[in-house]
Amino acid sequence: MKLYLFSFRNHGDFHEDCVNIIMNDLIRVMEPRYIEVWGKFTPRGGISIDPYCNWGRPGTKYEQMAEYRLLNHDLYPEKVDNR
């Protein structure tokens, strides 16, 4: 997993795209009912970015949960205390 994540270090894509690629790869490998991926990229030039994406299996309660979580997502990861 560490080597996989490090492969994005020089990926050359937008951070949001990297997080979506990671999520899609995890969905393919793990076949989860629900998944969230939250990237925490350290600042370069003083600007940090923390892209977030989630997915719930279509046609289940997890699809509705994903929509709810996305619409009510806390944009400040430093304040999240459930990690």
Walkthrough of the structure:
The structure is a single chain. The chain has one domain: GTP Cyclohydrolase I, domain 2 (2-Layer Sandwich). 39% of the residues lie in helices and 20% in strands. It has 3 helices and 4 strands, in the order ααββββα. It has helices spanning 2-6, 15-30, 61-71; strands at 34-38, 41-44, 47-49, 52-56. The strands form 2 sheets. It has a two-stranded antiparallel sheet with strand order 1-4. Strands 2-3 form a two-stranded antiparallel sheet. A hairpin with a 2-residue loop joins strand 2 and strand 3 (47-49). The longest helix has 16 residues, at 15-30. The chain is flat. The protein starts with a helix and ends in a 12-residue tail after the last helix. One of its GO terms (biological process) is tRNA queuosine(34) biosynthetic process. Belongs to the GTP cyclohydrolase I family. QueF type 1 subfamily. Substrate binds at residues 15-16. It comes from Anoxybacillus tengchongensis.
Question: What's the main sheet like?
Answer: 2 strands, antiparallel
State the domain count.
1
Q: Mean pLDDT, rounded to whole units? A: 87
Number of helices: 3
Oligomer: single chain
- The 3D shape can be described as flat
Remind me, CATH topology? GTP Cyclohydrolase I, domain 2
Low-confidence stretches: none
Q: CATH superfamily membership, which one?
A: GTP cyclohydrolase I, C-terminal domain/NADPH-dependent 7-cyano-7-deazaguanine reductase, N-terminal domain
CATH architectural category: 2-Layer Sandwich
Distance between the termini: 19 Å
For the biggest β-sheet, the strand order reads 1-4
Portion in beta strands: 15-25%
Question: What is the radius of gyration computed over CA atoms, rounded to a whole number of angstroms?
Answer: 14 Å
How many β-strand stretches? 4
Order of helices and strands: HHEEEEH
